């Protein structure tokens, strides 16, 4: 099992949701426990809803890779990682199961209480690495989670796309370098079936409603 010790000034602030992106649960389980894989995660949830606690959340897992969110760099330092069993976009992307949603809701409730994590700090792998990652993807539905990740004060509606991406939480450097990929990440969060970097009036309206509902 790969892990590091968290530095004293690096406290847990985020929960990062992933999918395994592998053909089977067995493959994912062994890879996440293989010291030669250079990856690890705190929790793995099977399609049957079984929660595997692979690493103590007080230790640092290697699940986020090169990543940024808001003003933080190297999100492994600040986060707890949850992997959901799913073959992913490369091996036959599928809907997440009802039991997985039940289990992740229970797990998030436990983690947010014990680590004092805010709802808007529960984020996706594609948020923190939009140039590299797609997970958990457009088939992961926010409305099946028992919390509101968003809900910012609706004091103004006339925002630019850049401003909306900043409010969403993307790192400013990522917005500058990977604007299209950031937009694709938001479209996946919005569960768009057709994923492309085009900015339409519908996307702007949906993005505002996501942030300010």
Backbone structural class: alpha/beta
Q: How much strand content do the residues show? A: 5-15%
Tell me the CATH architecture of the largest domain: 3-Layer(aba) Sandwich
Please give the largest β-sheet: 5 strands, mixed
> What is the total number of structural domains?
2
Q: How many individual β-strands? A: 9
Task: Provide the spatial order of strands within the biggest beta sheet.
Answer: 4-3-8-2-9
Shape: globular
The DSSP helix count reads: 7
CATH topology of the largest domain: Lysozyme-like
Mean pLDDT: 95
Q: What is the top-level CATH class of the largest domain?
A: Alpha Beta
| CATH level-four homologous superfamily name of the largest domain | Peptidoglycan recognition protein-like
**Poorly predicted runs of 5 or more residues:** none
Helix content: 25-40%
Order of helices and strands: EEHEEEEEEHEHHHHH
- Supply Rg: 17 Å
* N/C terminus separation: 41 Å
Give a short overview.
The longest helix is centred in the middle third of the chain and has 18 residues. It is built from 7 helices and 9 strands. Helix 4 packs parallel to helix 7.
Topology:
Layout: E1 4-5, E2 14-19, H1 25-33, E3 43-45, E4 51-53, E5 59-60, E6 68-69, E7 72-73, E8 79-84, H2 98-115, E9 122-124, H3 125-128, H4 161-168, H5 172-177, H6 179-189, H7 201-212
Parallel strand pairs: 2-8, 2-9, 3-8
Antiparallel strand pairs: 1-5, 3-4, 6-7
Helix pairs in contact: 4-7
């Amino acid at each position: 099992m790969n892990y590091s010790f968290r530095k004293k000034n690096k406290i847990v602030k985020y929960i990062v949701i992933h999918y395994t992106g592998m053909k089977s649960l067995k493959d994912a389980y062994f890879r996440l426990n293989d010291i030669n894989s250079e990856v690890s995660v705190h929790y793995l949830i099977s399609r049957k809803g079984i929660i595997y606690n692979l690493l103590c959340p007080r230790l640092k897992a290697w699940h986020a890779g090169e990543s940024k969110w808001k003003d933080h760099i190297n999100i492994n330092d600040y986060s707890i990682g949850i992997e959901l069993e799913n073959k992913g976009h490369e091996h036959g992307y599928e809907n997440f199961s009802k039991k997985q949603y039940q289990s992740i809701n229970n797990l998030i409730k436990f983690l947010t209480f014990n680590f004092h994590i805010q709802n808007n700090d529960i984020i996706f792998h594609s948020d923190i690495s939009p140039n590299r990652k797609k997970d958990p993807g457009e088939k992961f539905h926010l409305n099946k989670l028992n919390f509101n990740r968003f809900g910012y004060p609706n004091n103004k509606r006339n925002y630019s796309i850049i401003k909306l991406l900043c409010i969403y939480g993307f790192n400013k450097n990522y917005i500058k370098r990977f604007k299209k990929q950031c937009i694709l990440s938001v479209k996946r969060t919005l569960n768009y079936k057709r994923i492309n970097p085009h900015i339409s009036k519908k996307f702007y309206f949906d993005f505002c409603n996501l942030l300010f509902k």
